[in-house]
Each structure stands twice: as structure tokens, then as C-alpha cells.
Amino acid sequence: MTPAPFPCPGCGDHRTPVQETRPTGRANAMLVRRRRCAGCDWSFNTYEILGHDLKRLTRGLRFLARVQALLCQAPTPPGGAAEPEAEEP
Ligand SMILES: [Zn+2]
Predict the structure, then answer these.
(1) β-strands 43-49, 18-24: how paired?
(2) What stretch of H or E contains 19?
(3) How many whole angstroms from 70 Cα to the centroid of ligand 1?
(4) Which sign, positive or negative, has the C-alpha torsion 64, 68, 74, 76?
(5) 3 state SS for 25-89
(6) Sheet holding 30-36: strands in order across?
(7) Contact, 42 vs 36, CB < 8 A?
(8) What is the DSSP letter of 2?
(9) Ligand 1: distance of its center to the CA of 34 in Å?
């Protein structure tokens, strides 16, 4: 079975045959396809992942985005970042 055509990110040509396919990721759950554009000769990679794994990945990315947003909203202490206090003799 031939992988579906994928438009070239450079020129939009759909003649991007696969040059190489190899498994990658945890338990080889993802495929990396090396493609070359017949229009502009650009080589690029596409990644194929199971929908189940993509959902997990998307949930993880959403969680990280929420954490990043919370960290950006965190109040800064007066005078900037906390510095170690000098000990009194
Ligand atoms: Zn192209």
C-alpha cells in the first residue's frame, strides 16, 4: 500500500514520493517517512502516528501549555527574584 501523497511545504506540489520509511518512537509506534519533492527537489520528513497515541500526545501538550501559562502568571516577588538572605552574625 502506497502512503497518501503529502504536499511539499516548499512549493505545494503533491508529487512527493517516499524515499525511505523507518519506525521510531517508543516501541516503534511512529513511522518517519523521508520524502523528496518532484517539483522543487526539497527533501523533508513526515511522521505517521496512531490516532490513539496522537490523542495521548495532544493531552500531554495541552497540560504543558497550561503549566506554562500558570508559570507566566505567577507573581514576581517585590524587587525581582528571591535572593538568599544574609545571615546575621
Ligand atoms: Zn516542492
Answers:
(1) unpaired
(2) strand 18-24
(3) 40
(4) positive
(5) CHHHCEEEEEEECCCCCCEEEEEEECHHHHHHHHHHHHHHHHHHHHHHHCCCCCCCCCCCCCCCC
(6) 18-24, 30-36, 43-49
(7) yes
(8) P
(9) 13
Q: What is the pLDDT of residues 41-50, one digit of tens each?
A: 999 999 998 8
User: What are the φ and ψ backbone dihedral angles of 26, each rounded to 5 degrees?
Assistant: -65, 125
pLDDT one-digit tens code per residue, 44-70: 999 998 888 888 888 999 999 999 999
| pLDDT in the model for residue 53 | 80
Domain ranges of the chain: 18-73
As residues whose CB is below 5 A from the ion ligand 1, the structure lists 8, 10-11, 13, 37, 39-40, 42
Residue 13 DSSP one-character state: -
pTM for this prediction: 0.59
Per-residue buried b or exposed e for 65-80, using 16+ beta carbons within 10 Å of the residue's own CB: eeeeeeeeeeeeeeee
